[in-house]
Specification:
By secondary structure, the protein is an all-alpha fold. The chain has twelve helices and no strands. It has two domains: about 120 residues, Serine Threonine Protein Phosphatase 5, Tetratricopeptide repeat (Alpha Horseshoe), CATH 1.25.40; about 80 residues, no CATH class. Helix 1 packs antiparallel against helix 2, helix 3 packs antiparallel against helix 4 and helix 9 packs antiparallel against helix 10. The longest helix is centred in the last third of the chain and has 19 residues. This is Tetratricopeptide repeat-containing protein.
């Protein structure tokens, strides 16, 4: 049985299972998101609803479940009804850029090349420049996953250049997620890029900042 809570307490109830999903993997992560969804009211809280649907889409995509696409559609509908800045302090982060990023990460995990490209363009047009390195890194990973190593190296190089140009520490750190992938490539360009990336990340780690 699901126990409904008063609006004043919904934040704490939602936060626990929803944020717990970030620390879990596989089915337990999906279950945590769905547990949080059970506490949503039948109407209202659309920003929270959109966020949780996006999280569910990501987790389904990680499991290779195509239902993730439908969850993204539902999330978009909820987002268009939402007023993130008026609902709750913790949903103010949800904007067009963040929604686009959820779309991208989900299609990356599904290995859907066509949607990855369109989602990339949408995301890049909705975020500040310091986050472009992260988006290019995610696209690079998607290209490697679908077997296009040439495109993967191209996007990874763009990610590194963007991180350097905008002095994005976050972007350089995120590039670390594809180091193993680059190391497994036989392409000279991939090896050269890996060397540049390791050098920059080492310099970052040695920096007093």
């Amino acid at each position: 049985m699901v126990v409904r809570v008063e609006p004043v307490g919904i934040q704490k109830v939602l936060e626990i299972p929803a944020y717990k999903a970030y620390a879990l993997k596989g089915r337990p992560a999906l279950d945590a998101v769905r547990q949080a969804q059970q506490f949503l009211p039948e109407q209202g809280d659309d920003a929270t609803r959109a966020w949780l649907l996006c999280l569910e889409a990501e987790q389904l995509a990680k499991l290779g479940d195509r239902q993730a696409v439908e969850r993204l559609r539902q999330a978009e509908e909820a987002f268009h009804r939402a007023r993130p800045h008026r609902e709750r302090a913790w949903t103010r982060f949800l904007d067009e850029g963040r929604m686009a990023a959820f779309q991208l990460s989900t299609h990356v995990r599904l290995g859907d090349e066509a949607h990855v490209v369109s989602a990339t363009q949408r995301t890049l047009g909705s975020i500040d420049q310091k986050r472009t390195a992260i988006i290019h890194t995610d696209v690079a990973q998607a290209q490697f996953q679908i077997g296009d190593s040439t495109a993967g190296v191209t996007y990874a190089r763009r990610a590194l250049e963007s991180a350097q140009r905008t002095e994005s520490t976050w972007g350089l750190q995120h590039l670390g997620s594809i180091e193993k992938t680059l190391a497994s490539q036989r392409d000279h360009g991939a090896r050269e890029l890996l060397g540049d990336l390791l050098s920059k990340r080492h310099a970052l780690g040695s920096s007093p900042a």
